[in-house]
Specification:
Length: about 260
């Protein structure tokens, strides 16, 4: 028996990624490009998106970048139009923008609550609305970055948990709505070492590792691998799912 090398799963495909100038989004852009995708790297931080694009090109991949603030429906329309004019298609959409704005419910003002939902949840609606026509034509896939906060309770992040939980409900609705034409799934990262974790005290990191069965924090590449799977034909029978990629944090006891 001859064992053939696995083909690059995204050859001839175009992917648009948000918040891809750093962390999980950047790792996913690198991963999809390494597997043959043409990647449109977007971020509100234009310079960060440009750095990732240059890195991918230097490695022989195909990438373009553009600034995109995911909370702006107008900017979404332009970004999707640019993807279309670049390669004529859109196969993969990774909706990844998010940041946790802490505050217990009794301390949150209206503005903080709405800011959190606008960044993490409204932005997903804007992106899907703009991209559905192209994705439908390409029979594409959407992967949205949710969070372990959608699955288990943590003190101090009610708005973040509500926004991420909204994503997980929304993928089921969208998967049902668009059936065989577009697949929708979410990934729920646990603790992943990115800029979000830069300010985290060492004791909290140690405590998190102790509560994580695999015994380490996650890497952006751990999440990129899961996003690539869900976006690929390997997952052609998977839709409407919320995949926890958290080293088992959500199934371990709190002790
Ligand atoms: N790192 C973790 O432990 C962790 C855990 C669970 C979920 N997540 C989720 O993963 C996603 C990525 O997080 P990360 O840790 O890679 O973050 P990161 O801080 O490394 O990168 C975030 C990126 O988002 C960009 N951004 C911020 N506001 C934006 C906007 N309005 N429009 C477009 N881009 C914007 C920033 O410029 C930055 O490049 C987020 O949705 C986050 O909620 C992260």
């Amino acid at each position: 028996m001859t064992v053939a090398a696995a083909p690059a799963r995204f050859t001839g495909r175009t992917a648009l990624l948000t918040a891809a100038g750093s962390g999980i989004g950047a790792a996913t852009a690198r991963r999809l490009a390494a597997e043959g995708a043409s990647v449109l790297v977007t971020d509100v931080d234009a310079k960060a998106a440009q750095r990732v694009t240059e890195e991918i090109r230097a490695g022989g991949g195909r990438a373009e970048d553009r600034p995109l603030d995911v909370t702006s429906p107008d900017q979404w329309a332009t970004a999707v139009a640019e993807a279309e004019s670049w390669t004529g298609r859109l196969d993969v959409l990774h909706l990844n923008a998010g940041r946790n704005l802490p505050g217990a419910a009794h301390e949150l003002d209206d503005a903080a609550w709405h800011d959190q939902l606008r960044l993490c949840l409204d932005s997903v609606f804007y992106g899907v609305r703009a991209a559905v026509p192209l994705l439908r034509t390409a029979r594409g896939a959407v992967v949205i970055t949710s969070s372990v906060h959608a699955a288990i309770g943590f003190k101090g992040f009610p708005a973040y948990a509500a926004a991420k939980g909204g994503i997980d409900a929304l993928v089921r609705q969208l998967a049902a709505e668009y059936g065989g034409r577009i697949r929708f799934n979410s990934v729920l990262p646990g603790a992943v070492v990115t800029a979000l974790w830069a300010e985290t005290p060492p004791e909290y990191k140690a405590q998190t590792i102790a509560r994580t069965p695999v015994g380490r924090l996650g890497t952006p590449e751990d999440i990129a691998a899961a996003v690539a799977f869900l976006a690929s034909e390997d997952a052609s029978f998977v839709t409407g799912q919320n995949l926890l990629v958290d080293g088992g944090r959500s199934i371990s006891s709190q002790e």
